[in-house]
Design brief:
This protein is an all-alpha fold. The protein is 70% helix and 0% strand. The relative contact order is 0.06.
Length: 67
């Protein structure tokens, strides 16, 4: 009977390790996808595909208030 209990505890530990690894990978991949989808380049590409003009991010001289 003690062997069965030891085997069950070992299986529980293995399950918890797999669960933690899977959750960690899921969170990491989710954050990576989220940052990729919210990046400025993706937004500009999506806007161009939909036919919208995106304003510059302030790097050009026309956005500095010069006529």
């Amino acid at each position: 009977m003690a062997e069965l209990e030891e085997h069950a505890i070992q299986r529980d530990r293995a399950f918890l390790v797999r669960l933690v690894v899977a959750l960690g990978l899921g969170i990491a991949i989710g954050l990576w996808i989220g940052s990729a989808l919210t990046s400025e380049e993706i937004g500009k590409s999506s806007a161009r595909l939909l036919g919208y003009e995106m304003p510059d991010s302030g790097n050009s001289s026309s956005s500095r208030g010069k006529p």
